[in-house]
Amino acid sequence: MTERPRHRVARDADHLVVGPSALRWDGNTLVSDIAEISAPLPYRVRGTVRVSPEMIGTTAFALDPAGRHRWHPVAPRARVTVEMTHPAVRWSGDGYVDSNFGDEPLEAGFDDWHWSRAHLKSDVAILYEGRRRDGTPFDLALKFDRQGRWHDMVQPAAAALPRTGWLVRRATRADAGAHPKVIKTWIDAPFYARSALATRVFGENARAVHESLALGRFRSPIVQSMLPYRMPRAVW
User: Fold this and answer.
1) Could you read off the pLDDT of 14-24 as tens digits, one per residue?
2) Ordered structural domains, the chain, with CATH
3) What number of other Cβ atoms are within 10 A of residue 174's Cβ?
């Protein structure tokens, strides 16, 4: 995730090239060819990630009344294959692709949000909630079927989760009487956390991928000064 100058970026309908790395859509699979240097400890990151959607979501959802921020669950359910040469890692499993896009930076529109996705037996459950910069809340509770059709659901009951090592607040939703648990925290950053949960939602026990984003923290000058150490900015 190195920031690159404009002349190192190119795109068309089926390709996106950023420096030495690229994304391409072959009609069935999104292929990511990765050639990067890690940060803050520099070592090579090389390999290919393939994401084959089982369904395509065709609807983007506005996250604010003015529609400045939109969220699109592109592939609510997908098959992912990872083949890395540096480091030598290979695995495959179920995955998901979404996109946040809009007309202003995320930190200009929101203070925080909490999101989770769980693969159920037949459907995919997505829970999304947060607080906009003006203090108003937003929330979505959706189920996607095997054909990619989405259905509004009643938001389950609020459920507390422990804060992260950086004291980022985590919250989720679960069926009444359920007690979600953090199984593993993959990313614990000053303003962001991504975790695996054991939970129960819409009548089914499930493992969920969960994220919490603290954009109030992200806006702070201290956190901004830390970003280049994790996301270097190349000049070539």
Assistant:
1) 999 999 999 99
2) 1-104 (no CATH), 105-228 (2.40.370)
3) 23
